Amino acid sequence: MKSFEMIHLGGEHCVTGSCHLVQTNGINLLVDCGTTQGSDQALPIDAWPVKPSQIDFLFLSHAHIDHVGRIPELIRKGFKGEILTTHPTKNLLLPMLEDAMALGNPEEKEAASLLRTIDEFSWGFEYGQAFNLRKGVRFSFYQAGHILGSSFIFFESEFPRNSILFSGDLGCKHTPLVPNPDPPPSCDLLILESTYGDKTHETRERRIEALGKVLAHALSDGGKVFIPAFALGRTQEVLYDLDRLFSDRFYQKQFPELTVRGGIPVVLDSPLGMKLTKIALSLSEYWDNEAKGLLDYGDKPMDFDHLYVAESHKAHMRLLDHPGPLVVIAGSGMCTGGRIIDHLKIGIEDPKNDIIFVGYNARGTPGREIQEAATQKKGYVTLDGKKCRLQAGVHTLSGYSAHADQKELMEWVKLMPDKPRSIKLVHGEPSAQKTLASELSRQGYKVEC
After folding, report:
1. Which of 28, 86, 102, 262 registers the highest number of CB atoms within 10 A of its CB?
2. Is 3 or 431 the better-scoring residue by pLDDT?
């Protein structure tokens, strides 16, 4: 007899919109409730097999919008259950949702009311501890190594004894700030992400060197470097690596041009990115040992002398006309909106400029269009309805992915003391899922895409 029944409501065969319904012992559990991007699709809430008012608990793997963005809609439509996550994710959740709701232009009073409700409904938990939920069901959060606060979630039922593990978004080893993923416990059913199930990433050292080379080139010809970055996770990683380039003696010797004349100016053109960076700095107890060591040594990660913040819209508009050399970090990471669009519409047609992608771009997003145009040597891309000639250099640094690649996913699964009875792949495009499923099957695992 199964004790866990599962229905995928989003993110089954795509990377965004994660949402999964688990039913066990008369309890309705939701794991994540995210928005989609690009051409990805998720089942509308009104079409779910249960009403929001019938959902008892919402578990969050981390605070990225593609995992939490539909929470306001869920509450508007009747959800009154509890929201359970890790302590850092609880700290990051409200700023992320406040920003997302602002883009939807809700009434100010309604937005404030929703945020208060979400805060009242949500609870933070420590990693690695088992907690009783209800009716013989227990849960635990484990370190996923994706971003601060990220977790994979383990559910276990006593009657009958059964277990299910949601990987959430698994991170790469040696990701700045974040500890490596915990080894997974044995389970009956593993719900495994597959974002890069068909890829192998660059090493962290190579990605820093690649970043240094692009910056050195930009400095030499007076160009600008645009880095589209998610406000949560990727922005902090990029700032951390820029700090390494500017302050680590090894990189100073390798790229001396980056520190002349006080260093190349870096502007964080993202109020949300700055707010989340400040929160990340306050969560140092959850950092990895390397970052803690830098802090103890007096080197504050994610901060350096020539880092500036464009907080106001007026500052953003002035920045558009600022000459290079200059590095601009702005959202959104997939170029679906945000301040990065203004920069690209002006700067993408200048061959002195460079664009560095440091994260995944979903199908149908402008970020993916730019990447494909550069690869296929197409002349134009469309940004915010404007047809732009692609003249800037385009670079994709795969080592910046916060998702484990195929090798790391395989290694993580093999850490289980016993093989799961079944593995269900989610959070990946069909081609990535098919490749990963083939590799897992060759190792004797029972896999479903």
Report:
1. 86
2. 431
